[in-house]
Amino acid sequence: MDSLLPLSLLLLLRFFAPASAYNVRAIFTFGDSIFDAGNNHFNSNCTAQADFAPYGSSFFHHATGRFTNGRTVVDFISEFVGLELQKPYLEAQIEVANGSRKDYPTNGINFASAGSGVLRGTNQDYRVTPLQDQLQQFQNLIDQNHIDRDLLKQSLFLFESGSNDIFNYFLPFDPPTLSPDAYVQAMLAEVKLFVDRVYKLGARRIAIFSLGPVGCVPARALLGAPVDRCFGKMNKMVKSYNQGLDGLVKSMASKYPGAVGVYGSVYSIVQLFRAVPNRYGFLNVSSACCGYGTLGGLVQCGKEGYTMCPNPNQFLFWDYFHPSEHTYKLISKILWSGRQSRITPLNLKALANLTIYS
């Protein structure tokens, strides 16, 4: 049985009133390839791409720049709220600049960039957009009056990032200089700065999603990690980072007056799928549907030599790093209306129903 809401949240909710309709007019998204809706595609200098077949083939029927075969968690949450899917920031920027649209969208913007991390230096040789620059893009739009500040009170802010930082910690050709604990603390320090800045810019509904079990992705085969089980050392760092994110959310009610933060435990959700795959429609929770080599983890989907499974919905993983659309849909449903053991202290549906006055 779920626990009662903590006293701090009950006191905070004195400033809120439930509403019958969803009080979310926009969604602003920050993070990496789990959330990227195509920003990297519109960055001509970026080499981390998914803008080729068979990405997008199961839903959009063409590549959109999303690193899966269809929709992501952000897309499903948008559908649940009743919003059109958000445009990538760089696509909207190009359209405003060339005059094909008058101003930036009012239903939110997706700033996420595949390959990026919470640490500025992560995968910078791929010319990805780090979290700090994503936030600066958002601030620039506010400063230039492209985003109405009143809209922010009726917006949902989604954050997920850190898997690339942790995966790169184990790259054999780039040995780390920090201990695992110090590295995780450096990551968490950046997330705290992000939350602080986005709050000061007007964010009041902030959803922080944990990392999934990164040590279980098929791409671990590239590292020479065990392929008959998950990479324990990597998942240990992931769990430490996730615990820090959980603590950050728990402190938000007292640290950020008027804000409500929620923590989505994606790690435990994915581990549930792996523990009882048949219950969730999976036949394979280890290998990539699309890729090549051991676990399908040695070649990116769509690259030379790749193979593809006949039914992506039966696979937990679409490619060597990323979940399938079916996996994302299941995760989204749990984050939207799941119990407190999966998302705390409120699920996204309850968060979207709050009316914020302060």
Automatic annotation (TrEMBL):
Keywords: Hydrolase, Lipid degradation, Lipid metabolism, Signal
Family designation: Belongs to the 'GDSL' lipolytic enzyme family.
UniProt record, GO biological process: lipid catabolic process
KW Lipid metabolism (keyword) present: yes
Protein name, UniProt field: GDSL esterase/lipase
InterPro entries according to UniProt: GDSL (IPR001087), GDSL_Est/Lipase (IPR051058), SGNH_hydro_sf (IPR036514), SGNH_plant_lipase-like (IPR035669)
Superkingdom assignment: Eukaryota
Keyword Hydrolase: yes
An annotated Gene Ontology molecular function: hydrolase activity, acting on ester bonds
Signal peptide: 1-21
